[in-house]
Amino acid sequence: MSDTIIIKQISKSFGNINALDKVDLEIKHGSIFGLLGPNGAGKSTLIRLMNGILTPDFGEVKIFNYNTKNDPIEIHKISGVLTENANIYENLSAKENLSFFAKLHCIENEIANKRIAKLLDFFDLIKSAEKKSKNFSTGMKKKLAIAIALLHEPQILYLDEPTSALDPEASNDLIEMISLLAKEENRTIII
Asked: Using an 8 Å Cβ cutoff, are 155 and 188 in contact?
């Protein structure tokens, strides 16, 4: 496996708070990588640096040979992000949410419809595809949010606490799905 993400000597400060200090990291393509640490350890800052939302004070982040300083738009094209709070429109159905985000990504209708059908099936949301997502369980909302993050077929998926607020069964199901994404679809997943 080749390296997907190479981080060299990354440093980032916010005023007098040093969030990251000379971090080195390599993440292999198709792997699942966990960032662990207490609140304030710099995990979210590192994720924002990796997906081009922030620029480092010092050092370099390369993703598939794109530099986050010089190529943030290319980084965004190959990245999918699930924040801790599922970003879905609750007055829209699962299918309407996916269709809306497909349009934002400029995905042609025919291709979008195929991807939407595939994602609804993969995340076991077909029976609920036409229901308003405000009526979904927390687990179903998380699945829909991950489906939205995958819609444009990103190579890297950032999942911020994907199993938080889920019951043990839903957590296990989601962990299995995340494993399948890495193995079967060769996606790099950072949790």
From this structure: yes
Distance CA 86, CA 139 (A): 10
The pLDDT tens digits of the residues spanning 102-124 come to 999 999 999 999 999 999 998 88
Q: Which burial class, exposed, middle or buried, applies to 52 when counting CB atoms under 10 A from its CB (0-12, 13-18, 19+)?
A: buried
Pair type for strands 32-33 and 17-28: unpaired
Q: pTM of the prediction?
A: 0.84
d(CA 190, CA 101): 22
Distance CA 166, CA 169 (A): 8
| Position 1 pLDDT exceeds 50 | no
Provide the 10 A C-beta neighbour count for residue 167: 12
